[in-house]
Specification:
5-stranded mixed β-sheet; Aspartate Aminotransferase, domain 1; alpha/beta; 7-stranded mixed β-sheet
Amino acid sequence: MIKGHGGNVQALAKQHNCSIDQIIDMSSNINPLGPPEGLERFIVENIHLIRSLPLPDAAEMTAAFSRYYKVPLNRVMAANGTTWFIYTLPIALKSKKILIVGPTYSDYQDGCIMNHATFEFCMTSEENNFQPDINKISEMAKSSDTVIICNPNNPTGSLISTANIIELLKLHPATYFIIDESYLPFLQNAEKISLISQTSFPNLIVLSSMSKIFRIPGLRTGYLCADPDVIEKLMRYYQPWSVNALSQAATVHILESYEIIEPFLEMTRSFVEIEKKIFLDRFNLCKSIKLYPSNSYFVLAKLMGKMNSDELCRKVGEDKILIRNCSNFKGLSDKFVRFSLRDRETNLRLANIILNME
């Protein structure tokens, strides 16, 4: 299991002898504008649901996703977060050789290790701003039965085009491609980029998270879209009642609140686009830190001077700001950190703290 993940506000609060609410968390990739209006009130008003067992197969939750995204019901599966899929897919697919496009989220590797599946990385290069090399992925996919791609990728923010992924699917029909779209909803035109509704390729598996975009990571909700044959394989490992009653109810509520969710998504995407540009522009003349282009609302940065990521995290921590130390991402070093953006005041406060260290 990953050590040193984002969102560990408890440790910083304990260190400074303050409450968790006093910590500004810029380490965890969640929507700064969420949750959507009325969702927390809905959960409070439906707390009585914990008195009874939830549906064992999260059927209503699955049906709500199917209706919202217009995906055939037999191609959708719900679970208690995309993490369950990440750890279950290697054994369900009987994967023998898995290719992971990195540097990326460590749970992909941990899921392989847990299921005794051999894996290797196709690493993107710092020199190319961590943009994936499709030809390299394709070449390495020839000797793999499963490929895992986070799109957009965490922590680099890189994005592989829909056309390139479809090309990979066509070139390697016997290889499963697991595309994790957890951060895609933050992008403009995300619906046109997403492969959720793509039904032409039985080797395509798409993961979809509600945790990040709707800021409900504690509810643990996630979806998978794939060929019915893949769904059947996964269901052999599915535990009944694995998604709790409040999570199921909240997810259905979100997906059925079209009049609230659509404006919320539009507002989030505009907010991210504007605030990210302002934040990046603040570092234009800074020589001590390099910020990489990102297709999401988090930004990967490299420290160019003597300071390492531990030191920077400690220094901004003195201002009760938590950022992500990326030294434990395979393929990165102790010179890398990640900033998950918040409101403009907070973003500029962090920028000024870092710039004043020069």
